[in-house]
Design goal:
alpha+beta; Nuclear Transport Factor 2, Chain: A; 31% strand; globular
Length: 695
């Protein structure tokens, strides 16, 4: 039997998950039933986080040559499919991993690179609660200094299974899309690039927890709800730490050094392996200028992309660690460009209810001149000048690999590096204990339901955000429209906003047409580095993502560009998460060609031809109605853009385009120069706001 009454009530009173109110037929659940459902759904949320952690760990183990640890993430009867090759069984998979990534040798030799960058998860739990599916993108940077450098990219559609209480990879299915040497750039791997099947639809993408069998009522709802608290609070803390780390990356992009320093504890540290350690916020602020003075000018690029991290929260909920990768793209349009990759192993502390960075430890993996790549260029990390000199030597040697701050997700054992160093896990073996907690049984259950809803909202919002990018890649315009709410708004760049799924789909078809066959080129839209702010009732969310866009073709080397989605929003509608508002600001960087990367990029023209949609299929809200918020993103003739009074609108890179933020500094409350807390259209068209529509 499946109990559906609670899900109907959930939509109406903003509890956990929902179906349309009109579908209510079952009686209201009892408190004992609600407690059981909260317990079941909390386990479901935890499962989805465990599933995501498996793939992140797979990439992190590859980065440091832990082939056996990669294989231990798989079930004994697992299957790995790579293109047209299939490997069955954990032991054969282990041999394949060692041969493919390590040439049959344990670990990595000096100068070897196995960087697998994971992007844009869309995760869904199976109705049995014991299986799950996830879709990931990957960009791989591999090779060895003095030998070779290579690119590869593709999509994973993976299956997961829970065995003996532990989540494992049941099937890893990798669909290669492009590859190539660094010297020549990447190209499509086949003449007619196939569309990778998606495990979700526009509806199920926004339902991370499906309808599941109704659990038996719990005899003591208060005790059960109270027992959920530690795990729920821990997962909420993980989200807060993720937001903090990703906000850090956005501030570094723009060299907002005051804001970066504000994120640290007063006695916090910044340690860059082999370079030095800065102690205290004043010293950290001084040391940050090692990357240049505050602010970004024309022709400058300072992108510091934060990849998904594994966060571990302490038993008392007041400390945490996070391990992840940072991809940096830096340089001067009229000078040189550089790639670099670093591991971060950070510690965080919660004080007065606010998370701060207690110790940021950066471990450079490589730094290379863009013109030469990582086979021909192995540069030292950027050194500080005397006025930015560190307070003390680094605690770590140059090119050191940090100990892991978490235990192996499957074996539960410390992760031992090839050099013999063990785990840096913050809380190995410890279990959080429930707080005594006051209040009635009803209040305790309601609070547990609310926290589960906040956590489900976080996953649901990120799912539909990432699915949106996937639908763009495949020119699936009807499905893209369906991922929006009934009154959802989508900005078409250089034209305006279209309202509603049908209008959005028609605008995309009018602008781009349908997918061509053969498919010889693909634009890849990766919406990454999320900062997600879920409303207290769990029915809406505001979020920021970074556009990391790469293209690939059959006859030409790929290119890349970047933008921001600073003011996006999602809502819970009819039991599924849907996009409410999506608006892109671009370009913050772009390449004129693969050979030069982000240097020698010509300036955008002062005036452009108005977008074809303005005549062929006019938007519901013109960009010219939105004033300063859109001034930087409208091609600039005075006739087309009445808000340009003294010359053209701000063009994109290599000009210094303004960057907008929807949030203040989470620690200090500092308000950014370009602050826009609501949707892009909300000021000029308040009827498009969440609040005006009951959220």
């Amino acid at each position: 039997m499946v109990f559906k009454g609670f899900r109907a009530i959930a939509l109406c009173v903003a509890a956990i998950v929902a179906v349309p109110c009109a579908a209510q037929t079952a009686p209201s659940p009892t408190l004992a039933q609600r407690a059981a459902i909260a317990q079941r759904d909390a386990a479901g949320i935890s499962a989805l986080r465990d599933v995501r952690r498996l793939h992140i760990a797979y990439s992190q183990f590859a980065e440091v040559g832990l082939w056996s640890e990669m294989a231990d993430l798989f079930a004994d009867d697992a299957e790995m499919i790579v293109g047209d090759q299939t490997i069955r069984g954990k032991a054969p998979i282990a041999r394949w991993i060692a041969a493919t990534f390590g040439a049959g040798r344990p670990g990595l030799a000096d100068g070897e690179i196995r960087t697998l960058l994971p992007f844009t998860p869309v995760v869904n739990l199976g109705a049995d609660g014991l299986t799950a599916k996830a879709r990931w993108h990957e960009l791989a940077m591999t090779g060895a200094y003095g030998k070779e450098a290579n690119w590869a990219g593709g999509i994973y559609e993976n299956d997961y299974v829970k065995q003996g209480g532990i989540w494992k990879i049941a099937r890893m299915h990798y669909y290669p899309q492009f590859a190539g040497t660094y010297e020549k750039g990447w190209r499509n791997v086949e003449p007619d690039l196939k569309v990778v099947p998606m495990h979700y639809t526009p509806d199920t993408a926004g339902i991370p927890l499906p309808e599941m069998a109704s659990p038996a009522p719990i005899s003591n709802p208060a005790v059960a709800a109270r027992a959920l608290d530690p795990a729920l609070d821990g997962m909420l803390a993980e989200n807060a730490v993720r937001n903090l780390q990703n906000i850090y990356g956005y501030y570094v992009d723009r060299r907002m050094w005051d804001d970066v320093a504000d994120l640290f504890e007063m006695g916090g540290t910044l340690d860059i392996a082999g370079i030095g350690q800065w102690q205290g916020t004043a010293s950290i602020r001084r040391g940050l200028e090692r990357e240049g003075p505050a602010g970004i000018g024309a022709n400058e690029l300072n992108e510091h992309v934060q990849l998904p991290a594994i966060v571990t929260v302490s038993a008392d909920g007041n400390e945490a660690t996070a391990r992840g990768l940072e991809l940096a793209m830096t340089g001067q349009n009229d000078g040189k460009a550089y790639w670099s990759v670093s591991i971060f192993e950070n510690r965080y502390r919660k004080r007065d209810g606010v998370w701060r960075i207690a110790a940021m430890n950066l471990f450079p993996r490589f730094r290379a001149d863009y013109a030469e790549g990582w086979a021909k260029s192995r540069l030292d990390p950027l050194a500080p000048e005397q006025k930015q000199a560190p307070d003390a030597p680094s605690d770590f040697a140059k090119w050191a690999v940090p100990a892991f701050s978490y235990l192996h997700p499957v074996t539960g054992k410390p992760i031992v590096l090839a050099a013999g160093s063990g785990t840096g896990a913050l809380i190995p073996g410890e279990t959080r204990t429930a707080k005594v907690g006051a209040g009635s049984a009803s209040a305790l259950v309601a609070e547990a339901e609310r926290k589960v809803q906040l956590l489900a909202a976080d996953i649901g919002a990120e799912n539909v955000s990432n699915a949106f990018g996937n639908y763009i890649d495949d020119f699936e315009w009807e499905q893209l429209g369906q991922i929006f709410a009934r009154k959802g708004a989508r900005e078409m760049p250089y034209a305006g906003f279209f309202i509603g799924p049908e209008r959005i789909s028609t605008a995309e078809i009018t602008k781009w047409g349908h997918r061509k066959s053969p498919r010889t080129g693909i634009p890849i839209h990766l919406r990454i580095q999320p900062v997600i702010d879920v409303a207290p009732d769990g029915r809406s969310a505001k979020f920021r993502t970074r556009l990391f866009s790469i293209s690939s073709g059959l006859e030409y080397a790929g290119s890349f560009s970047g933008g921001m989605y600073p003011n996006d929003q999602a809502v819970l509608e009819d039991g599924a998460w849907k996009l409410w508002s999506v608006a892109i600001d671009e370009f913050y960087y772009r390449s004129a060609n693969y050979k030069d990367g982000w240097i020698k990029v010509p300036a955008e023209p002062a005036e452009k031809v108005p977008d074809m949609l303005l005549g062929a299929y006019p938007p519901d809200i013109l960009l010219t109605e939105l004033g300063q918020r859109q001034q930087g993103y409208i091609p600039g003739s005075k006739a087309f853009n009445p808000y340009v009074h003294n010359g053209p609108a701000y063009p994109g890179y290599p000009s210094a385009t303004p960057m907008w933020f929807s949030y203040v500094n989470p620690v200090s409350g500092r308000v950014p120069d370009y602050y826009w807390p609501d949707c892009v259209t909300c000021a000029a068209h308040p009827e498009t706001s969440l609040e005006a529509n009951g959220y």
